[in-house]
Amino acid sequence: MSHYTAPSQITQRQFAYFAGKKVLVAGEVEDSFPIELSKHCDAVTVFTTHYGYYRQLQTSSAVKSYFGAELTADITADLLLIYWPKAKLEAQFLLAMLLAKLPAQCEVIVVGENRSGIKAVEKLFAPYGTIKKYDSARRCSFYWGQCTQPVAAFDLEDWFKSYTVHYQQHTLTIRSLPGVFSHGEFDLGSQLLLDSLPSLQGKVLDFGCGAGVLGCVMSILNPEIKLEMCDISALAIHSSQATLAANGLTGRVFASDVYSDTDQDYQSIVTNPPFHSGLDTSYRATETLLQQAPNYLTASGQLFVVANNFLKYPPLIEQAFGNCVTLNKTGKFSIYHAKK
């Protein structure tokens, strides 16, 4: 993968900053640039909350990589390179967590697209030291700074946001970490999907579980189901596990890159699939999800999907299943259903 994203291209112009350094890379990195970077510095470690990206890096021995909601491993690094994430709160979260693991006076480089709001790093970094812009190109900015202030110990619990969701006669507590879909609110698409579901049985997969709203409501309404929940984000997985626990529910929650880690015997797959990758619209994962769904369902299995009306999912579902029914529709969302 030699084609680099714009933030990596601007970083590529600045290899002098990395010479002789042990670099920790984190944030919205989406390409193989850390492997290239390892040729220009002493060592590269990557921390990612994105399971798909973690799986890609596993094929290289040039970098050490860690996947999770929190970096718990003991690592040696003296320079932190953050690819600015799309959610400002997630950037704040990454700085607090990673600087707590790094030595005093460590250097920090932040890169990202200007439209992602990277300029906010000047204010966000103020408690740690000063950071300044040293380069800009390809509508991206490159900041360098140094952590000169003491950093507070990091506690993941402090970063959870809890809110209440009322559905039918039930009240649920939802717990979510920064950057997780449905962080602090009940998505209207998910609500419409729940309104459209029949009673469920057997093994049910909440695909792209986010903070766990769908899975928890399905479990409360159908206490006999065997609930499984998956997501590509470690922050989502951690949030869903916390949401299940907060409501006294149980289910298997795990990381999966589309169907990489799922079983193949679901009675129902229920999903409010994402269509964004970073700042851009991306349909690839959802297309794979829909096209391959029959392979992961039992003989009488079914699929329930909520999607924005502008997304052309029915032809894909029709192609995969030979049928696709619109169960419900509003001005913004549609609920699609297919049977194997």
From TrEMBL:
Locate the Methyltransferase small domain: which residues?
Answer: 172-336
Q: Does the keyword S-adenosyl-L-methionine apply?
A: yes
Cellular localisation: Cytoplasm
The UniProt entry's GO CC annotations, sorted and at most eight, read: cytoplasm
User: What keyword terms does UniProt attach to this protein?
Assistant: Cytoplasm, Methyltransferase, rRNA processing, S-adenosyl-L-methionine, Transferase
Q: Which InterPro entries match?
A: DNA_methylase_N6_adenine_CS, Mtase_sm_N, rRNA_ssu_MeTfrase_C, RsmC/RlmG, SAM-dependent_MTases_sf, Small_mtfrase_dom
- Enzyme Commission identifier(s): 2.1.1.172
Q: Where is the Methyltransferase small N-terminal domain?
A: 8-163
Q: Which reaction does it catalyse?
A: guanosine(1207) in 16S rRNA + S-adenosyl-L-methionine = N(2)-methylguanosine(1207) in 16S rRNA + S-adenosyl-L-homocysteine + H(+)
Top-rank EC class of the record's enzyme: transferase
Q: Does the keyword Transferase apply?
A: yes
GO-annotated molecular function: 16S rRNA (guanine(1207)-N(2))-methyltransferase activity; nucleic acid binding
- The domain of life is Bacteria
One Pfam family from the UniProt entry? Answer: MTS
Role noted for this protein:
Specifically methylates the guanine in position 1207 of 16S rRNA in the 30S particle.
UniProt similarity note:
Belongs to the methyltransferase superfamily. RsmC family.
Q: Which HAMAP family match?
A: 16SrRNA_methyltr_C (MF_01862)
What PANTHER family does this protein map onto? RIBOSOMAL RNA SMALL SUBUNIT METHYLTRANSFERASE C (PTHR47816:SF4)
Could you describe the subunit structure of this protein? Monomer.
Q: What is this protein called?
A: Ribosomal RNA small subunit methyltransferase C
This protein's encoding gene = rsmC
